[in-house]
From TrEMBL:
One of its GO terms (molecular function) is transmembrane transporter activity. InterPro entries: NCS2. It is found in: Membrane. It comes from Vigna unguiculata (Cowpea). It is a multi-pass membrane protein. Its main location: membrane. Keywords: Membrane, Transmembrane, Transmembrane helix. One of its GO terms (cellular component) is membrane. Residues 9-23 have a biased composition (Pro residues). The lineage of its organism: Eukaryota, Viridiplantae, Streptophyta, Embryophyta, Tracheophyta. The chain crosses the membrane at residues 59-78, 114-130, 226-244, 250-267, 287-308, 432-451, 457-476, 488-507, 527-546. Belongs to the nucleobase:cation symporter-2 (NCS2) (TC 2.A.40) family. This is Solute carrier family 23.
Amino acid sequence: MGEEHHHAPPPVQAPPAGPPPPNLALSRGPVWNPAEQLLQLHYCIHSNPSWPEALLLGFQHYIVMLGTTVLIATTLVPAMGGNHGDKARVIQSLLFMSGVNTLLQTLFGSRLPTVMGGSFAFLLPVLSIINDYTDRTFPSEHEGLRYIRNSRTSAGDLKVNNSQHNIERGFRNLGKAKVLDNTRLHNKMSAATFNLDHDTIIVKLAVDAKCVGTWCSREADRRNGLFSPISIVPVVCVVGLGLFSRGFPLLANCVQIGLPMLILLVITQQYLKRLHHAAHHVLERFALLLCIAVIWAFAAILTVAGAYNTAKAQTRVSCRTDSSYLMSSAPWIKVPYPFQWGTPIFRASHVFGMMGAALVSSAESTGAFFAAARLSGATPPPAHVLSRSIGFQGIGMLIEGIFGSVVGTTVSVENVGLLGLTHIGSRRVVQISCGFMIFFSIFGKFGAFFASIPLPIFAAIYCVLYGIVASVGISFIQFANTNSIRNIYVLGITLFLAISVQQYFVTNTAPDGHGPVKTDGGWFNDILNTIFSSAPTVAIIVGTLIDNTLEGKSKAVDRGLPWWGPFQNRKGDVRNDEFYRLPLRINEYMPTRFL
């Protein structure tokens, strides 16, 4: 029997490697690289248009911020028992302090071209204070007394606690050292509060603004931040989207003028400017003013012609150009002065509600600062800049409390959107707008003339400007891995919960300010109802929590932290100093921790 031999089969030769598969993306068109700064701006943060253009653009910023100012006064003053004259004075105080706060922020705070306006976050706490004084306490013939008492109580609760907390937290984080002696500061603030005698009106919520922003900025300085491109996208998005109730729902109160304003603005600013080269320059920058003038005149014609004589009461109030009674009620000249309503009253039971409103204002301002940086051609604000802005915002709130504004301050989102609409992010333009705010707050009749613009016209403008801010938030996603399922999950759940939670709390809040959280502790109710009625606050809580705990370290590259990190450190990027350094060589005379 022959011997059998088993031989291994010869190895199979691998086929020669072929050429790599074609990149279909390249074959279908160009691939856009991430852009740290927008290249289509005509003027960035530190470049300036000519003086005539700058003056007109500054006036445009003033007109845009008027809508929110009038809406706040229209909402609160009647509920407090005030009359048309009180409303005019409150608008003057809000305008005056908006000018002062905007100057503080653009000169020494964030240094971004952001207008500081009134914050709706304080409506619920103020309504809670109002509800403490019933009609039985102040009979109908003493409405003025009820208004004054409400104002006094708001003053003490809002002013001292919030401004103290804001200044303390902001400057403490700047230095990470003994910048302020907290105990000494608290004692001084408390003494100042309780030494106030008890006699007068709504002085103002000094915003605790940015506890959230401060907390996040401190951590950012430590380890590239709790924020990342993934967590900042939903925050900035809902800063715009969360204000949808001030858009078309407010416009629909008078579609006769609101809808034409919206259509005319889009056609004029985006389409007509492309018909002729000479018109492009003018319409891109000043179409908003032109459209307001045209539709306002149209509304006046309808009013004089009696178009609303048989309409419902709500329609007449929204559509008529003479329904605000501001022109007849405003004084010709009145300079806002400290304690103009009387000295504030401090009530500890309302302090916590104001703290909740401060958190909300912080979240809104934080998102708006990032949007403003993007639309003005600056890099994302570093941690120390956010902290610095918090400190100066607290100083501004303290001054506001003294001068008697109605609500706390926050970044005006509509004015941030205006930067993108006009393609002009100049800081000087916004500083010029402060002059208009202060001027028209002193010369009341002139300010009341522009404040008489019907609110549906402003609502049509907000439909465009809030949308721009929301879309700017989306642009931050380019610095992270958009193909990561993990990132998609974080973005999706944060965006949805931010809008959904806010909608639940807003729709279940009664006109008197009582929200869905109802316990025996009124202060606890005010905190939760205020916080969760804000989409940006929910977005910060949910987004930073999930983004940092869901494989936060191992997915740092996917989250965009290698790009994000240098901008969050003081000297991480050379452009940080270019955009955010203090003016007039102040940095040479101040400790480094304050810069």
